[in-house]
Amino acid sequence: MKHRKVEHPFGNGHHRRPAPHPPSRRRDSLAAGDRPHSAGERHGASIRLDRIVAAATEAFARDGYHKATMRQIAREGPGGPGVGLAGMYHYVDSKERLLFLIQFRAFSGLLTEVTAKISGVSDPVEQLRLLILTHVQYVAGDMATLKVCSHELDSLTGEAYEQVRRVRRQYYDLARDIVARIIAQERDRPGGRSADPRVDLSGRGGLDESVATMSLFGTLNWIYRWYDPGRDRSPASLAQQVFAQFLAGLLGTLGQPARRPAREPAAGRASPSNNAAATRDNDSNPRGSDDHL
Description:
This protein is mainly alpha-helical. The chain is built from ten helices and two strands. It has two domains: 30-93, no CATH class; 95-287, Tetracycline Repressor, domain 2 (Orthogonal Bundle), CATH 1.10.357. Strands 1-2 form a two-stranded antiparallel sheet. α1 packs across α4 (95-118) and α4 (95-118) runs parallel beside α7. The longest helix is centred in the middle third of the chain and has 30 residues, at 158-187.
């Protein structure tokens, strides 16, 4: 089997190329012939689908995608979907469809949220701060989803994999563009200082934008492994430290003095409802071959 290194947000770095697989005929909810017609029926169906996806997220995060079963998801906890096994198949036709919905909703929602937050902001450093803040708040609001997205990317196949990959790529490209503009802006800033020779990359091909971007995602993607928003510092405070450390690292390799970070948002611990509100929510080294995509 051919293996490739995949570089993207929420990835563990080692994923196989998905085997050909025909796309599902179903959309995000019901099969075309079974869709409810009234607004009330559509609303009820949407709520039930959301509960099924939430139950699947908990099961996949706890037991792993391959070990979890549809029967288990149907009876997942007191807050489960509340539909029986047969009823669940009325909304989704397979376990892989559930995994697709979890990942596609997470990535597209996060991309939408970050894009909205940085809209109208011209300073790439401030854009970086907002991207990190939004990402960390999303993680703090839904650790289980991040775990599933990080560990189960290679479990999707065919068109489902490709749809998720395209959204991941968009998010990666957005972050990489921000990092590239910071590097270009700070590299040419007058009045800089000499970099410590141990971190000076000027004579070693310069600072690689893709490596810098993936280093950032490497930090963000593993937060769920150790961070507890109910016990540790607030998501806003954590995001501020990640931002300050990453920016200082960039500027240090460029021979520039560290810039004073933007004012830290109010500390206070974010409630689950606040974190959820913040979520209204790649792949690649562009110089490489298409094989890594």
